[in-house]
Structure formats: C-alpha cells, structure tokens
Amino acid sequence: MSVARVAGLVVAALTLVPLGYVVASAISTGPVEAYHLLVRPRIGELLWNTVSLAVATMATTAVLGVALGFLVVRTDVVGSRWVHALLVAPLAVPAFVNSYAWISLNSSVVGFWGSWLVISLSYYPLVYLPVVASLRGLDPALEETAWALGHSRTRSFFSTVLPQLRPALLGGTLLVGLHLLAEFGALQLLRFPTFTTAIYDQYGSTYNGSAAPMMAGVLVLLCLALLLGELRLRGRRRFARLGAGVARQFEPVRLGALRWPTTLAVVGLIALAVGVPTYSLLHWLRVGSSTEFPLDEIGAAAGSTVALAAAGAVAATLCALPVAWLAVRIRGPWATVVERSTYLANALPGIVVGLALVTVSLRVVPATYQTAGLLVAAYVILFLPRATVSVRAGLEQAPVVLDDVAATLGQSRTAVLRRVTLPLIAPSLGAGAALVFLAVATELTATLMLSPIGTSTLATEFWSASSDVRYGAAAPYALLLVLISIPATWLLIRERRLEP
Amino acid sequence: MSTLHLRGLSKSFGTVEAVKDVTLTVPGGSLTAVLGPSGCGKTTLLRLIAGFLRPDAGEIAFEERVVAGQGQWVTPQHRKVGYLPQEGALFPHLDVAANVGFGLSREERTPARIAELLDLVELPHAMASRQPHELSGGQQQRVSLARAMAPQPHLILLDEPFSALDTALRESTGRAVVRALRAAGATALLITHDQNEAMSLADQVATMRAGRLVQAATPHETYTHPVDAEVAQFVGGANILLGTAGQGVVECSLGTLPTDGPATGPVQVVIRPEQIELLPLDAATGPDSVRASVLEVSYYGHDASVRLSYASRGADPVTSGELVVRVNGTDVPRAGDQVGVRLRGPVLTLQS
Prior knowledge:
The complex is a heterodimer of chains A (about 500) and B (about 350).
Chain A: H1 2-15, H2 17-29, H3 31-38, H4 41-74, H5 80-88, H6 95-105, H7 111-123, H8 125-137, H9 140-148, H10 153-182, H11 185-189, H12 195-204, H13 211-240, H14 259-291, H15 295-330, H16 332-346, H17 350-363, H18 372-396, H19 400-408, H20 413-441, H21 445-450, H22 458-467, H23 471-498
Chain B: E1 4-13, E2 16-26, E3 31-35, H1 42-50, E4 57-62, E5 65-69, E6 72-73, E7 81-84, H2 96-100, H3 111-120, H4 137-149, E8 155-159, H5 167-183, E9 188-192, H6 195-201, E10 204-209, E11 212-217, H7 219-224, H8 229-234, E12 239-246, E13 249-252, E14 255-258, E15 265-271, E16 276-279, E17 289-299, E18 303-311, E19 320-328, E20 338-343, E21 348-351
Parallel strand pairs in B: 3-9, 3-10, 7-8, 8-9
Antiparallel strand pairs in B: 1-2, 1-4, 4-5, 5-6, 10-11, 12-13, 12-15, 13-14, 15-21, 16-20, 17-18, 17-20, 18-19
Helix pairs in contact in B: 4-5
C-alpha cells in the first residue's frame, strides 16, 4: 500500500515541475524586474489578443455545440446519423494541420478573424460531443412535465433542458479555452501572436532569461482561472449525473418547412469544417507528389514518432497506475492532492512544460538535456490525465469486494492481482495507453522544443515544411497525422458516450 | 462443517463501538440469522468473522481452533470461510464455471466437480459457459453460493444476499440457498435486516441492536418470548400496553387479562395483532371485552390490518388507546364502524 503512496507522490512531484519552475522564476526575478517585464505595451497587446480570441472562440463553439447537438439529437434534420459522424470528424484533424489547410489555399485567412474561424471550426466538437451525450442521457420526464404544465417547446427548452445541459456545455467550453491557451502551431501559422507563440519566439530567438518565464507565468494564471472553473463544475457534475439505462426515445421536433434549409446550413458548416481540410490535403498531395515524395525521410520520421509515442504511452500508463490506485482504493487527502496535481499539470500548455523542462534539465541534470528521456517525461506530464481517467475507470470496475471474495477463497494478494485485478483493468490500461500514444504522435510544441538533435517526427517534419511555405512537402506528413488521429477520435467519442 | 464460537467480541471505529461484547455459538450444520436494523453492527460482525477486520477484544473460534484472539491471527486466505456478498459479486471477466471453480486448485477444477456444485444450487449444467451479465439476480446469487461452497469452507457468511432481489425472487432464492446449505450440511451465518427472511429461513435468530447481541433463540422462541418490547415489535407487529401483573393475571387498559409470564408488579403487556378478535358490538358485554371504533383499514386480500380506538376499562389513567388488529380477509369492518374487542389466549408480559 505504501508503495502506491510513494509512487503517487513521485509522479505528482514530476507533474508539478513546470508549475514549480514558473513560480520559482517569478520569485527569483523579483518584484521590480517583474513589474518592468510585465507592464509594457507588448504584454498588453498579447493579453488582449489571447483573451479576446479565447472569449470569441468559446462563445462561438458554445453556440455551435448546443445548436448542432439539439438539431442532431432532437429534430428530424435529414440524415442525422451521417451528420453526427461528420460533425465529430474535425477532432481527427489537429488544429495546426487545419490551419495549414486553410492558409495554404487562401493566404488571407490570418490574424484575429482567420484564427477565430479556423480555431472555432477545429474545436466546436469539444462542446458538441458532451452536449450530445448529455441530451441523449436526459430524462424526458422533466421536459414532459413542463409541457403538461402548459409551457411551449421553446420555453421548456430554456426552462428545463438548457439548465441540465449546463455542466456539459460549460465543461466543453472551458476545455476549448484551455486548448486555445495552449495552442501554438495553428496560431503561429495564422500569424496571430498570443502568449504561447510569443513565449516560443522569445525562447527561440533572443534568449532573454526572465521574459519568457514571466509570460509563461501570466499564461499559467489564465489556465488556472479556467481550471478552477472546471474543478468547480466537476464537483457539481456528480449531482447532475443521471441513473444508468435512461434510454427513452423522444418524439423528434418537426422542423417542417425549415427542414431542408436547416439541413443545408449544417451541410455548409460540415463543408467548412471537414470539406476544406480534406480538399486542401488532397490538392497538396497531388501537387506535392509530382515534385517531392521522399519515402525514406517520411519513413524515418514515422519510425521515430512511433517509438516516442510508444515510450510515452508506456511511461504515462505506468505513472497513472499509482495515481488511479490511490484515488480509487485508498482515497483520503493524499490521494486527492496527488490526483489534483496531475490534472493541474495537464492544464499547462505544452510550451510551458517544454520551457520548464529545458531550463530545469540544463540547471539541475544537464546530462538529460536533449535526450529522448526528457521528451518522454514531458509527454507524461502533458498526457498523464488521459491515462489516469482510463485506468481509474477500469479500477472502478474491479471493486474491493471482489478482492475480499478471492481472499476468502484462499488466494494470496499476488494471486488476486494476477487472477482478478489485472484481467479486469487490462482493457482500460490498453485504452489509456492508446489514447496517450495517439496524443503523443500528434504533439507539436513540446516536441519542437525538446526533441534530441537529429530526431525528427511527423509533427516536426510537417512543421518545418509548412512554416517554410513548402505546402506540397508538408502534405504527406499532414495526411499521416490525420490518419493517426482517427482512432484516437473514435476512442474519445466512445468514452464520451460511456460518461454523459 | 464446524461450530462457530464468538466470545466477548468487540470492535470500535474511532469512538463508535460497532460491535460490543458479542458472545454467540452457531452449531455445526445450522443456519443462524443475525437480525438488526442498518447500523446495528451486523456487517462489522461478519467482517470480523471473515477476517477482513481485526477484533479489539474477544475471540473467534471454529470448533477448538482460535482464528482471532488469544494472540492468534489467521488471515482471510487461511480461514476457509465462504463469503457471499450483496449482489453476488461474481468476477465479471470469468464465466460461471470459472467463477465456481475459482477457489479450487487446478486438479480439483474438473467439469464433474463444477457440475456437482451447480446441482447443489439447482442450476442447469448448461449455465456453466454463461457470462455473469447473462444471469438474473437470483441466478448470480446461486452461482456466488456455489463458488463460496466449492472449497468446502468451515462456515459460510451471507451478507444480505437477497436484499437486491425483487420480492418474489427473494423468497424462492432464499429457500433454494437454504436447501443447498442443508444438503451440504453447511454452517452458515446470514446477515439480514428483514425479519421475515430471518424468521422463515434460520434455525436461530440472533437479534442485534447498537452493537450488542440482545437475544439469540429459535425463531419461535424469539416471537413468543422476546426479551424486550423492542425485539417484540421488531420481529412482528405488537401492541404494547402498560399494566400491573400478579397471580396469573395482568391489569391493563383492556381489563384483566390472563398471562403465563412470571413477571409481577409493573409490566409491559405485549399483544400480537392476531391475538385480538373483533365481535359485533352487542356481543361485547363480558369482562374480557371492550368497545372500540375503527379508525383505518389496510386491506391485503388474504387478511387486513385494522387500527382501532378503544375506551379503556379499569383504573388506568389513560382513558383511551389504540390497537392494531389483524383480521381475516373475508370479514373486514369499515372505518367508522363500532365493534367489540376480545383477546384470545394468555398475553405476554415483560417486567418493566
């Protein structure tokens, strides 16, 4: 038991390194220097850019998510099954690939409005999916009661349905906010400077000791504000959860004369969100294949991507085991501290994690700088919660009473682990590892900062080609990144369905 | 199968004394029900016997072998105790045969042995290849029992195994489980909060309250001679009146009634609902009857429960009272009716 506790603390300590780095550098900078670094027009501009884009995309994705969710689940919109499948498809296209698709076709898609368009089209499924799951799980009785009391459909939607969607809607919207704060690749390509891109530029060009960590500090504060909102919601969501097996069918809302126009509008959105990137990719593949298609370079990048992703997946799953074990089997304040700290780390952008690990490794253990091990550590910090959520769900399927029964049947503790616990959690371990594998394979920011010299991955190769405006050369990498993301998308959709 | 001895067993959680000084013997081959409301410590008692918890004081012995107490400690793995938790808790990744054979060694895990165990719990052999989620709640409980009995434990512990089942299934599953336990000659301890289950299935009822064992007796003895008014009410409806007893009779608000209890002086009078007879009003003239009016009738078909208000007789300062009476379903009064009330047989008195 104490093994789990010690292992959990070690994992928690690792995940807290980036936050510790930000706090420590803020302290060592001192208040005067910090004031000079923070109170200047450049920071004001970045803050305005970051916050205004976050608010705009969060509002847009919230409206899109609820409207599309309602249309698909509750109305007789044409072909709702196909529409649903296509509406979640953008999840399989990393936002930086989507930006490349747009800007390579039309170079005027830049700045605030270009970023707003591309990011909203990339991220709205993060709201749409939980809203759909929540709508499907709602007990019809509440809405039917409102009808019986004489409320119109519109009025009962606002009085009974929307309040119940709130946890899903707000949770999804906050996730959009966190993703946006962490977004580097897409915004860099769309030439819209935010804290994340500014930190990268600062880090890459003039290595100024304290400017980058100070900006990281502001970014972390923004993330923590969103995370606090998310945690408060998570606490309340428990009460909003519905009993299992609520599968009563709704009589769909008849759209009447608006049925076809509404369907066309949805198809239009799908054309923008799925059609444009698909067309663009195919276009550049065709153009690119006539000029350059370096198979061995692509093969090498794919090979190192797979190796790094596999290492990240195994490491993150191993680290998730004690965290999930503490949370499910032991509980108590320690378990809460350990679990919360891993989630805290997940809210930090890849740029902050990368910056922290570069600095800390150079100062504390220089031998690890620019090694694959350090990169894998970054992946663990970034994607641990994905593995933890899966392993935790698995452990909850293996209740303690089964251990008790096995003990009374004469089984030793190791036999119980081998014959009961491991077989029960093996599928969840696999699912968690797969999720991390796929996330690592499409990770860009931390990989750019930490990958060992000479090691190139699909994401970094794509990045160097597309930022040099070699769009044709970037296409095969973009295609592989999308193909890798498809199974992850499918897994995510399945998990959402399990947990409304 | 062994006789289970509990001697002075106690267990506290912080300041809460969950089990206090419990002494109980469960004879080999018999079924004892531990009956009590939730929070009375009965589950803690079971977990102590299984070895999931260590007692603070007292000892647990299977025959002469002490498994806890006297400096001894035997882990659950080595106690050879069968455990049937609520909802069965079958291993979800194993089929019925693998669940049943889980506690058996590889050599013992033969199809013949599995079939024998399925026979014992009255399940068809074809079920051996089913997955747990394909079984009904009652079937899961039977598989769970077969799994617990497979390694031939000294004792089987049943932790409210029927509470999750619906009413009809609860009774039939309970009977099937008891038949299987009897066929195997197993010693068993059934934890339950349902007095019907305890009274109808067990050889001995051990009634617990606030961590203490208040009475251990046969179901009949528990019903006819409860140790106190609370036990009397817990194991079946009871009207409790105050009275004064002496020389084979008791004076109370219903008049002078015969009693067979040894108690004298101030007593509590226990009158079972089925001991009371309703009469036409004009027949209620004798010294053994009183007049009453019907307040409320709950009709169940085969019988009915009637709440009455009666005018008291004798010197009792309470001038009126209420009684609950059980009457045959064929002859049910209506609310507002005036009736006579007479008692059948001697009443039970408890020294107060």
